[in-house]
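Here is a protein:
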Amino acid sequence: MSRKKWTKWSKFTLKQQKQNTKHVIFSICIKFKNITPKIKGPKIKALYIQ
């Protein structure tokens, strides 16, 4: 790999890593949000059925 290609590649990977960390945090948040309704879910469903 030439130096120019290397710097482009490293910048690209850094960008990707930043996006990945955002994505990971986002997915953790979504998982957390999905877990909490599962706990409350049956109670809410019971209310909806009534």
Observations:
- The longest helix spans residues 3-49.
- Residues 6 and 12 are 10 Å apart (CA to CA).
- The mean pLDDT is 78.
- Residues 1-50 form one domain.
